[in-house]
Amino acid sequence: MAETRGIPGTRQTIMRSAADLFAELGYRNTSLRAVAADAGCDPALIGHYFASKEALYDAVVAETVRPAELFREAIGRRDPGAAEWLLRHAVTDWGDPVQRRRILGVLRSALDLPAARERFTQSLVPEGIAGADEIRLALISSLLVGVMTSRHMGLLPPELANDGDSAELVRALAPAVAALLVAEPTGGAGSDRSE
Asked: pLDDT per residue over 151-171, tens digit each?
């Protein structure tokens, strides 16, 4: 059944279908026609909400991964509690099987296709963040992606991989993230940053 423009929830339905298909098939193998079929709408309706497949992917990444604003606030706070605050928010979705599958799908697409990788990377860094803060966020992002992937592969001890309770994982990671939030990176872009 084709939907008409402006029906409340249509954009979200399209994004949910796209997120599931990107997770299952990857970016390269997901067509807008398949997204429309899964969402139960006319393919032309996707163009009403999203200018292209790339724009749809960008929206899915922004909603699925959601790190940029968390990073902005954590960098702005830079207090001892900022690391735990950031981690609690960042790992919340890991325990939800649907959201975890979508996040891993975004990562899979980013590994598969340079354009998807660039979009994923851009989604991690809020606008206006540069220099030492950009280096901090790159390192924190790398840490989180590595831990999430290791958790998914069963490489973490059971107490750190508990889907129902991420408190132990947050406590274990907090010192490393806190150090990255407050330490001044040396060399590269951060070495000549003026406060």
From this structure: 878 888 988 887 777 889 999
